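Aim 2, interim progress: modelling of the phosphoenolpyruvate-bound target.
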Amino acid sequence: MATDSRTKSEIVVQGISASQGIAYGTVFVYLQSDVEVPSYQVDEAKRIEEVARFDKALLTTRQQIAKIQDEVEKNLGKQEALIFDAHLLVLEDQALIGETIREFETTGRNIETCFNKVSSRYIQAFSEIDDEYLRERAGDIRDVAQRVLQNLLGQAENSLSKLAEKRIVVANDLSPSDSASIDRSAALGIVTDSGSKTSHAVIVARSMKVPAVVGVRDLTKRVKTGDWLLIDGYDGLVIVNPSEQTLFRYGKIQSEKKSFEQRLMDANRQPAVTLDGVAVTLQANIEKVDEVALVKEYFAQGVGLFRTEYLFLNSARIPTEQEQFVAYKTVVEGMAPLPVVIRTLDLGGDKPMAGNPELFSKEANPFMGFRAIRFCLEHTEIFKDQLRAILMASTHGKVRLMYPMISGADELARANAVLAECKAELKAKGQSFDEKLEVGAMIEIPSAAATTDLLARTCDFFSIGTNDLIQYLLAIDRGNDRIAHLYEPTHPAVLRTLKHVVDEAHRAKVPVSVCGEMAGDPVLVPLLLGLGVDALSMTPPLLPAVKYLVRAMKMTDARDLAAEALMLSSAEEIYAKCEAFCRSRIKLD
Ligand code: PEP
Ligand code: MG
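Predicted structure of the complex, ligand included:
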């Protein structure tokens, strides 16, 4: 099978473990579409050929779009397929094409450079127009332009949604929409040059149950499509051209892990109750409607976080109120009678909406910029569509509504005022909704943590988003691999903040869950529970290990662990203590 890999020497590269498991197979190198467009002068003698190359790329693009349009019409319907008419029109836009040719005739630079220059100018111009329809055209031009450039650069097959065969995807970076579009049936594993454990793309990989290693720096430059690769998602290793011995060793590791995972899966049918009889609520995080089956397979006690922005990320346009209602209703009905926490849009940051560049202009600090509730409170028409859709879905099961990135009581009041408007509008139309719908806030900005008591006055529940809370508290960009080692969930500042939030919330009788990645890490679970957290929500495949640990520990011991940890000054020491606690109760490897 690996004849090629046996003849070349093995290279081991250390990255960051992002999703557990072992994968072995051939590589598919994916470079994000805004790869550098090469720029060079074209020989006088080759100018006619260069224009012909452009014509051919336009024709190929037209054929590709027509094919996608056919498929969409077959699978989703005529209406959905209409979007692609606008894309086809871009290819017929004589101004865009004529200007590209003129640019080429004047400068003699290669056609990719000319097309990139002219199309970028068009995208910029359209995105600044004060007319929604025309602004949407900017997204169409961008999509089509990327496709034409890929065809010119011979990268047309660089599509993650249709891998020709089972492959390990090696990418320089993956946007959340890239990862959401990955062909789940053919991706054996994922490796990225950049990224960290809590980047959104990685969270998606984890939910796909494929091994992933991130932060492998320049791997895309060291491997090419077709090379053999082994990824060890347990220890964050990537092995290029693994030797026979390595394959044998990993074969053994894999079968041991598999039998341990089977043990965990068997135990997962049991209730999540500690040895001293304390029941713990374990829920699931989802990004897509079709993940409900996975949530059930792992016996989660509801959905603790539905990241609704993923409905938007892969769409060329904003989903309508009705489309959102259908999506939410499907999840809510699928989970009933168990609860579903629907989080309102958390677009922006590292989750801009690719199809709508006019909504998200480039920012120097996107994580601290125009994202989530800030975006919603400015685009109230988008926010209200979503709130009404959630309200309407609330009669189909048990819904809880949650706002992301709340920074304080004023912002919460503004969001609630918009919600009240939506309720009044529905009432006026005679549309029913759950009048007792619980409304909560994520605690993921330090200012929200510091004002937990004030927020508790108008919140039914809190969910701590440790992914963001840690990045803001420690000033560590959660997606930056250079400083990933400084991203410390056991930093004393994190512990103190968590304790403060839980204590203040409980004083006001408001329950607190954790839905950041910390909640799915068995090493950190006893600490969270010991600090008094009421529920944990995580990527479904992480549930069995967490439940196994909950069933193997006493809550009194977890409280002692948290009390001891709070007295320590070193993140490393606290982590070691948590690790020892976990290891003495279960053997995870
Ligand atoms: C978090 O920040 O911990 C969280 C759960 O939200 P997200 O990862 O979607 O930002
Ligand atoms: Mg967050």
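The pocket of magnesium ion (ligand 2) is lined by residues 404, 444, 465, 467-468 (CB under 6 Å). The domain at 272-442+511-585 is CATH 3.20.20.60 (TIM Barrel).
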